Structures are given as structure tokens and as C-alpha cells.
């Protein structure tokens, strides 16, 4: 049976990622505990987990809140991603084998075939698309063969998930399909400089939308 803390954490995480809390909205532990029928300690435990994922902020003497869209933290994460991921992609292109190429093709095919939104007019990406998106980006880098670098990617991706969801509302005309197709094509053509530059620009556009 799922523990109360796990259920509350999962519920709050989904609510934040789906935009049910506005940026900078207060996350009051006692109110949330009452709403979910759990103890204050359980509510605080769930909120601290969300802080660790970058989905909430802990405010001195003021409890917790959803991060702000313009927080400098998003720009720092984007800078880290734009520095690290293109460099790892270069390694992946240099080291990746045919099996890796086939996984990149499959991951891109799944991403291209997954609708970004559950319903027409939605402002936030669906969970299914978000997972296909993550899988594509990670598969691109897996050819590097370095689990430390991949663990760094995993952490930065988790830290930037909320920013990606918010950016969808601010760049409704952005064509992710074209961006991803170009990255895949350059990667499979073994054009390391070209693929790295396309990935760098791709990552940067999300941060620009929230600046």
C-alpha cells in the first residue's frame, strides 16, 4: 500500500507540473495537510522532496512556495545544460555504435508520434509527451558511455522540468518537432559540431521564454 507521504508528494508534484498552482503561490503545510488528510510532518516531508526537485522553494520564516517563472535559478540551470549537454553529445557521436543509432531513431520516432497536449488548447505538456521528450534527449547522450555525465544530465533535467512546462505557455508558436528532427538528423549524420550547436540553441530557447 502506498504511504501517505508518497501519495501526497505525487499529488502535489502533479498539481504543480500541471499548473494548478500559479508561480510564487504559497504552499502552506498545514492547509495542505488538512486537504490531504495527513499530519503536518507528512506534508512537510512531501514539500521538502519537492524542494529537492526544484518544484518548490523553501522560504525563510515563510514556509514554502512555487518558484517564480523569472527566477535566476532557471537561467543558471539552462546555462549548465547548454554547456554540458552539447559537449556530452559530441562524445556520444564520437563513441556511439549502431545500436545507439537505432535507439536514437526509435526515441525520436516515439517523441514525434506523441501528442504534446492531452486536449486541444492545453497550456501544459502531457506527462506522456514529457517522458518521450526526456527519453529522446537522454538517448542522444547515452552513446558517450559515461554514467557520471548521464547522471548529471538526469539531475539537470529534473531540475528544469517545471521551467519546460511553463515555457510552453510563453512560446505557443515554437515548433519543437522541427528542432528535434534537426538534432536527430545532425546526430545520425555524425555532424558533431552541427548537432552540438542545434542542441545548445534548443536548450537556450526554453530559458529565453522565461527570462
What's the SSE blueprint?
Layout: H1 4-17, E1 26-27, H2 29-36, H3 40-52, E2 57-59, E3 63-65, H4 72-95, H5 98-112, H6 127-142, H7 147-170, H8 176-188, H9 192-210
Antiparallel strand pairs: 1-3, 2-3
Helix pairs in contact: 1-3, 2-3, 4-7, 4-9, 5-6, 5-8, 6-7, 7-9, 8-9
Protein name: GntR family transcriptional regulator
InterPro entries: GntR_C, TF_FadR/GntR_C, Tscrpt_reg_HTH_GntR, WH-like_DNA-bd_sf, WH_DNA-bd_sf
Organism: Dactylosporangium vinaceum
CATH topology of the largest domain: Four Helix Bundle (Hemerythrin (Met), subunit A)
CA(first)-CA(last) distance: 42 Å
Amount of helix: 55-70%
Annotation field: number of helices: 9
Low-confidence stretches: none
CATH architecture term of the largest domain: Up-down Bundle
What is the rounded Rg? 18 Å
> Average pLDDT across residues?
89
Give the domain tally: 2
Describe it for me?
- By secondary structure, the chain is mostly helical.
- The protein has 2 domains: 4-65, Winged helix-like DNA-binding domain superfamily/Winged helix DNA-binding domain (Arc Repressor Mutant, subunit A); 72-210, Up-down Bundle (Four Helix Bundle (Hemerythrin (Met), subunit A)).
- The chain is 69% helix and 4% strand.
- The chain is built from 9 helices and 3 strands; from the N terminus they run H-E-H-H-E-E-H-H-H-H-H-H.
- The protein has helices at 4-17, 29-36, 40-52, 72-95, 98-112, 127-142, 147-170, 176-188, 192-210, and strands at residues 26-27, 57-59, 63-65.
- A 3-stranded antiparallel β-sheet has the order 1-3-2.
- Helix 5 (98-112) packs antiparallel against helix 8 (176-188).
Amino acid at each position: 500500500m502506498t504511504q501517505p507521504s508518497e501519495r501526497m508528494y505525487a499529488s502535489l508534484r502533479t498539481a504543480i507540473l500541471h499548473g494548478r498552482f500559479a508561480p510564487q503561490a504559497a504552499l502552506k503545510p498545514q492547509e495542505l495537510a488538512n486537504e490531504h488528510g495527513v499530519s503536518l510532518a507528512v506534508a512537510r516531508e512531501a514539500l521538502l522532496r519537492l524542494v529537492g526537485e526544484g518544484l518548490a522553494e523553501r522560504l525563510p520564516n515563510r514556509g514554502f512556495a512555487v518558484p517564480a517563472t523569472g527566477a535566476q535559478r532557471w537561467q543558471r540551470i539552462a546555462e549548465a545544460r547548454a554547456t554540458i549537454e552539447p559537449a556530452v553529445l559530441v562524445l556520444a557521436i564520437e563513441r556511439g555504435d549502431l545500436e545507439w543509432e537505432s535507439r536514437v531513431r526509435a526515441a525520436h520516432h516515439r517523441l514525434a508520434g506523441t501528442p504534446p497536449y492531452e486536449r486541444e488548447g492545453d497550456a501544459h505538456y502531457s506527462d506522456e509527451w514529457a517522458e518521450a521528450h526526456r527519453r529522446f534527449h537522454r538517448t542522444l547522450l547515452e552513446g558517450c558511455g559515461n554514467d557520471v555525465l548521464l547522471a548529471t544530465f538526469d539531475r539537470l533535467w529534473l531540475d528544469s522540468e517545471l521551467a519546460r512546462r511553463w515555457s510552453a505557455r510563453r512560446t505557443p508558436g515554437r515548433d519543437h518537432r522541427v528542432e528535434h528532427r534537426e538534432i536527430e538528423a545532425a546526430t545520425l549524420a555524425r555532424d558533431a559540431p552541427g548537432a552540438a550547436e542545434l542542441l545548445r540553441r534548443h536548450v537556450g530557447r526554453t530559458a529565453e521564454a522565461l527570462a
